[in-house]
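Data availability (excerpt). The following record was deposited with the supplementary files.
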Amino acid sequence: MMTKMTRLTASGLLFLALALVSCGDGEAPKNTEKAANAENLIAVGFSQIGAESDWRRANTKSMRETFTREKGYTLIVGDAQQKQEKQIAAIRDFIRTKVDYIVLAPVSEQGWDDVLKEARSAGIPVIIVDRMVQASNADFFVAWVGSDFRKEGDIAVDWMEKQFKDKKELKIAHMQGSLGSSAQIGRTEGLRDGVGRNVGWKIVVRDSGEFTQVKGKEVMERFLSEYRDIDVLYCENDNMAFGAIQALDDARVPYGTRGGLKIISFDATRAGLKETFAGNISYNVECNPLHGPRVEKIIQQLRDGKKPNKIAYVDETAFDAATIAKEEIDSRAY
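Predicted structure:
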């Protein structure tokens, strides 16, 4: 299925580590020369979107904990700081220095054909994680690992239908994630279809909080300046929900178990579940960031000459403030 990859040379890996400092957060691997001299190590280049949320940091941590030198890997991480051009530059550095595998968490779905074609021509398998890419050729990447974002949206809407079944009118504020990302697209589609089939449901205001707490607070403040009579805040990740909670507290607007609007969030990070347990977030849909072991399984399948599944969804659940147990928070890995 693939030819044997050329290992990184010491000078090549050192060059790549230095290059990624300029396009990321300076997180080039420690002990670079020592790792590079061990020619039996499997080189994995990981282009990460950034560190904009608790979920994203947990995703990177999972990769670091999986692809360790002790397990026979050297992992090169490039933090793109939310910029697609930085990701493309990082991937081209991975190709130039002949890593064995490329892992990409794409900032958006579009615009990857050229660089993915270059990786394929170089014989380097590309594994996509989290957000999907829209490629003109399915062979530009070998596998994708992530969440069924549309299903997450459907799960949230199903809870809303049960929670508000006796309410004739439902005013919804919709705080979207980064526009064009798979998570934003899927979760937005779920809400859109829910509004379409429920008479009386109306999205009264919508804007993007870009998956960050700071922007989430800013957007919620603007929502409240326009609409005080909101029944539901449909918020597409935990960090934006944290910002929204700050804005609601500042404005003395009731929410959660204290009455007032209900907050629906996504990710179900440990911090998010603490807010759910406290009754501030009413419903939290899980988005599992622990992709490292799943990516390693795909790499091992490729090394064994096997063909991995093209699409692999992670297992996920959801948490209701009315039923969540403290043990579910304490056992959280992220």
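Summary of structural features: The longest helix spans residues 182-197.
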